[in-house]
Amino acid sequence: MDNILFFLTPKALCSHLMADDTLRQALVRMESAKYQALPILNKKGEYCGTLTEGDALWALMNRCGLDIHKAEHIRIMDIAHRKDNTPVKVDAGMEHLLERAAKQNFIPVVDDKNTFIGIITRRSIIKYCQQQLLECRNAT
């Protein structure tokens, strides 16, 4: 299978942050979404990074002294990101997905204009590989 769109969770169904969100807004959204990391988009809809719970908590401690009210004045793009999940283009192959999934829990997918179109989760890739393995075992 070469069409990665089969695995895609579309943008409309993805929790995400906006680049001009504050640290407090990000913490609230992360808590309600129950995810440990969320993609960050700019106003054009382009993927511009990933914010993790760790990034947010370190910023809350180091920049806000654990004062949630101070977090209302810190923009998420002004804090350090431990790592930004590397996106793939919509025409990427399975080998690229596997390579990325080994290092990150979700893979942002962008089109030719770098517009964010959704994510592929590590879970969906593992389920696909599991199905392929079972089919191979059953064929022998």
Structure description:
With 140 residues, the chain is α/β, with parallel strands linked by helices. It has a single domain (4-139), classed as CBS-domain, CATH 3.10.580. The chain is 35% helix and 20% strand. The protein is built from 4 helices and 7 strands, in the order ββαββαβαββα. The protein has helices at residues 23-33, 53-64, 94-101, 122-139, and strands at residues 9-10, 17-18, 37-41, 47-52, 88-89, 106-110, 116-121. The strands form 2 sheets. A 4-stranded mixed β-sheet has the order 1-7-6-5. A 3-stranded mixed β-sheet has the order 2-3-4. The longest helix has 18 residues, at 122-139. It starts with 8 loop residues before the first strand and ends with a helix.
Q: Which characteristics define this entry?
A:
three-stranded mixed beta sheet; 7 strands; alpha/beta; CBS-domain; elongated; four-stranded mixed beta sheet; 4 helices; 140 residues
